Structure prediction request, 379 residues.
Amino acid sequence: MLGISGGVDSSVAALLLQQAGHQVEGLFMQNWEEDDRSGPCTTDADRKDAVAVCGRLGIPFHARNFAAEYWDGVFEHFLAEYRAGRTPNPDVLCNREIKFKTFLDEAHALGAEKIATGHYARVDFHEGRHRLLRAVDAAKDQSYFLHALGQRQLAATLFPLGEIEKPRVRELAREAALPTHAKKDSTGICFIGERDFRSFLAQYIPARPGEMRTPEGELIGEHQGVMYYTLGQRNGLGIGGRHGAGSEAWYVVGKDVPANVLYIAQGGENRWLYSQRLQTEMPNWIAGVAPAAHFRCTARTRYRQLDQACVVDVRGDGLEVRFDEPQRAVTPGQSVVFYDHEVCLGGAVIAATDAPYGGLLPAFTPSPTIPAREPPSRV
Prediction:
């Protein structure tokens, strides 16, 4: 059962599965109810494209509405995180709760033995366990968003696009005359669409204006609500030129949610944005267990970031991570995802950092020194 989205990636995934001899059926997921308040989502157009692709390939088409499950499992958490002043990543939660849980269960109910999606990632079986691997196309790799999966999900999943690059996907779609071959890739979050993010969020979390101050305490202006901003943000602060302040742009460097104060500083590389340590919530290890209680690997704290060398300590209630080099704008609510070369080990939600406004707990105990440039150990 292929998750058919109406985009070119899932269309070519269906084509490749069919060419490989699989009996393929497509299931279109509606994860959001459109109304005047929620605004423009492309569900109707995407569904029509999905139907057209299935018709072109001669495979059965199914559709299910998972909007209630999405609201309960993803969107309510999304809102709660913003109310707490954090910046969540709904794609990670959607994969765990909807695409590889609700969808997987529905596919099994419809008689499917496995599911497939158009994600750019790979799965293999090594030493008795399934592993999540980076895609061959590094620019499109989506393993970061899939780090919350486990053995049950990976054992039941195929990623047909993991071994090919995006330009070839477009070529295959044209060669097969798939109606989605020239369709633009979707970006962002469907339920927000093309609208201003702050305007969307204000429909669910009312504005609560407060002070914008520098770390030194100087009052600079007024914000509309600390939940509308994220660390490292430059645009949307509404700060014009200030006498004696210089020409450098202003950036968000911290949020005091209880006091409703937004802290800002000038310069994209200012010291207030940098941290070298972070703490996480409980992690998910794709293998089911941590590689070790204390180990070296590389990690990303945001999608498309280059891998950063670090040391990981497994604690009872989460992880302590120390990077070899300071990291810019590491943001609570986002995910830190760990890698051993091409293997995605798992990840966790970032709870705090040692940036000046990062909220890192003082109980951090440095781990025994490991050589800074030692390559990640094979797991």
In short: The helical segments are 8-19, 43-57, 67-83, 90-109, 151-155, 166-175, 197-202. The first strand starts at residue 2 and ends at 3. Residues 238 and 330 are 23 Å apart (CA to CA). DSSP finds seven helices and 18 strands in the chain.
